[in-house]
């Protein structure tokens, strides 16, 4: 269903009078909510309107953990899978715990607690692991500047990137490149 100006105002104003009358989904997160949900307002172009919660489910959306549009609790394992997917697909972005909580419609402290309980590490540790792995792959493929690789994988502080890389892989990025990059041995 197309979003009208009236429906957009209902969502913008978190109008609880329309709870259980309409639901909205956010294409970028594949999460659906009640109009009264206090999560960050999505971009209008990413919003779809549903006449029933089941319709949102059929289209591949999952219920929001914050507003629980189906009055059911979402299993934490499902939430952790979504966190992993978000980290994997957006590792190059600024993803603080607060940002993860906003995007995945949950409390940042609860998100961290559940993630660590299930995975044994924090979301930020997993994000750093993903970023360093992406940097390692780029070091093996080309001759880009270390600072450029660091920036492109979401680590703006190059000295911190170098220190983290060395801690994980046992060599500084330049040493790693010299040791393993086929292109650097020519």
From TrEMBL:
Its EC number is 2.1.1.63. The keyword Transcription applies. GO terms for molecular function: DNA-binding transcription factor activity; methylated-DNA-[protein]-cysteine S-methyltransferase activity; sequence-specific DNA binding; zinc ion binding. SUPFAM superfamilies: Ada DNA repair protein, N-terminal domain (N-Ada 10) (SSF57884), Homeodomain-like (SSF46689). The keyword Translocase does not apply. One of its GO terms (biological process) is DNA repair. SMART domains: HTH_ARAC. Its cofactor is Zn(2+). This is Bifunctional transcriptional activator/DNA repair enzyme AdaA. It comes from Lactococcus lactis. The gene is adaA.
């Amino acid at each position: 269903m197309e979003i009208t100006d009236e429906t957009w105002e209902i969502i913008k104003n978190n109008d609880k009078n329309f709870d259980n009358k309409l639901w909205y989904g956010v294409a970028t997160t594949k999460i659906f909510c009640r109009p009264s949900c206090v999560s960050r307002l999505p971009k209008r172009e990413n919003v779809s309107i549903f006449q029933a919660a089941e319709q949102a489910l059929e289209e591949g959306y999952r219920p929001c953990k914050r507003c629980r549009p189906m009055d059911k609790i979402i299993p934490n394992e499902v939430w952790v899978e979504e966190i992993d997917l978000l980290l994997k697909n957006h590792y190059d972005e600024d993803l603080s715990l607060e940002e993860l909580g906003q995007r995945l419609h949950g409390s940042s402290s609860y998100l961290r607690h559940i993630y660590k309980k299930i995975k044994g590490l924090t979301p930020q540790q997993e994000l750093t692991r993903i970023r360093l792995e992406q940097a390692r792959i780029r070091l093996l493929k080309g001759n880009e500047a270390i600072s450029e690789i660091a920036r492109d994988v979401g680590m703006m502080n190059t000295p911190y990137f170098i220190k983290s890389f060395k801690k994980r892989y046992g060599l500084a990025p330049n040493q790693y490149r010299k040791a393993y990059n086929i292109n650097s041995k020519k």
